[in-house]
Amino acid sequence: MPSETLTIVDNRIGKTYEVPIENGTVRAMDLRKIRTSSEDFGLMAYDPGFMNTAACKSRITFIDGEKGILRYRGYPIEQLAEKSSFLEVAYLLYFGELPTQSQLDEFNNIVLSHTLIHEQTKKFIDGFRHDAHPMGMFLSTVAALSTFYKEGKNIFDAQNRLVQFERMVAKMPTIAAFCFRHSIGMPFVYPDGDLSYPANFLSMMYKGTQLRYKPHPVLERALDVLFILHVDHEQNCSTTTMRGIGSSHCDPFTALAGAAAALYGPLHGGANEAVLRMLMEIGSKDRIPEFIKRVKAGDGARLMGFGHRVYKNYDPRARIIKQVAAEVLEVTGRSPLLDMALEMERIALEDDYFVSRKLYPNVDFYSGIIYQAMGFPVDMFPVLFAIPRTPGWLSQWEEQILDPEQRIVRPRQVYLGSEVRDYVPMAGRVDPATVDAAAPQAV
Ligand code: SDX
Fold it and tell me: Chunked in runs of 10, what are the mean pLDDT values of the chain (443 residues)?
């Protein structure tokens, strides 16, 4: 009679265990019951990089990596990219349902009226060198907000959490734009509440002496779609960091800064910047085969923007971004980098090294090409990932706080270090290097 259990035989002592299966998982704590004696600690699951570990139950984002499916609260990303807006998707992520028109209008008004940041925050940004990486400035400033909004620590007050959510969705673009303006020595441009969320961000980034900045509608919509595509991605590295820091019950600003720090890495959200630098380093289409050869030779070169821990098929976001890239370049002018990226994709997807490892373009492969075409400097790209990921991080943080099963994150380890040993007085110590050097050389 089939049952939702696993029968485990411990061949060390011939004992059998029945372990329940729930949601396609076994509880790691059930493995601890498998002991060889009463002194035995019991078994653990060993899973570096959490390749096969579910750390939480979630109802926010669903990914099917084999089929290339991504849904936010059940809605396919393709439909949201075509029909929704970033703020509507942010609302959907946090509240779990699409808003009515009045709910959306209220949310838009709240967000677009909270885009200012405390005047003293500017002093943090002004303190950075002109050549400071925007992501370093950005995440430091986000962390500093915890010193302004002290009530953020009231994390068990639902209304307070909502205020911080609205506040951070509103203020991330302002912080990002102020960091950029600082790096180019331009005066800060204050938010314009009469513009849409993406248009206001472009205005704070690029407004010059004109009375009002009006972006090209194609670029305004393209940025909104890119933001939608980046909102959440279940338990990726930075979201896991957000949940991990949040599990200690610190305020959301500190957790957001930590999540942004994790995103900064070139294997994660920093990949969009790394893709552009890779393409610029290659220089031309005819030098792509040489680069691909280096990647396959394993000399340390990676095809940035390719591969994914979950997607073993084409990242559905990359497919949409590729379409958006074509629309943007119609307005901004053809980019040789797009031609290189398309050629690189063509070559890679015909090469067994990539096909056999199921390495396909991911969200970062084409996004940077759009950002560059829109005038964003390459080192702003990770910041452009952090802005739209903010509602995703905060929605996951909210879900964790409300999850009665969640505890402070504290994994175990497999200890392979020294056994107990006594302290050695200085006189008795020798430098292992000198011992090796003095040892008689084998002839
Ligand atoms: C994001 O998790 C998320 O959801 C993240 C994200 C999100 O929205 O939050 O989707 C955003 O971070 C997208 C990924 C951006 N990163 C990159 O584009 C960097 C390049 N890609 C990789 O370094 C890599 O593919 C990862 C980090 C994305 C995934 O790494 P895994 O799952 O640990 O895979 P791996 O490093 O173990 O690689 C498996 C094999 C290895 O070859 P073998 O040792 O088996 O011979 O594939 C090879 C790797 O060498 N490989 C690559 C490669 N990625 C993997 N070889 C060349 N180029 C690559 N890009």
Answer: 91 96 96 95 96 97 95 98 98 98 98 95 94 96 95 96 98 98 96 96 96 95 98 98 97 98 94 93 95 92 92 92 93 91 94 94 92 94 97 98 96 96 95 75 59
CA of 268 to the centre of ligand 1 (A): 9
Measured in degrees and rounded to the nearest 5, phi and psi for residue 9 equal -105, 120
How would CATH label the architecture of 65-270+381-401?
Orthogonal Bundle (1.10)
DSSP SS3 for 314: coil
* Domain regions of the chain by residue span: 5-50, 65-270+381-401, 283-372
- Give one DSSP letter per residue of 135-153, joined into a string: HHHHHHHHHHGGGT-GGGG
Catalytically annotated residue among 64, 118, 216, 268: 268
> Which homologous superfamily does the CATH classification assign to the domain defined by 283-372?
Cytochrome P450-Terp, domain 2 (1.10.230.10)
- Closest-CA residue to 341 (of 299, 311, 371, 312): 371
Q: Which of 238, 241, 267 to mutate to test the pocket of ligand 1 (most atoms within 8 A of CB)?
A: 267
**Ligand 1 pocket list (CB less than 6 A):** 233, 236, 267-269, 271, 295, 302-310, 357, 359, 362-364
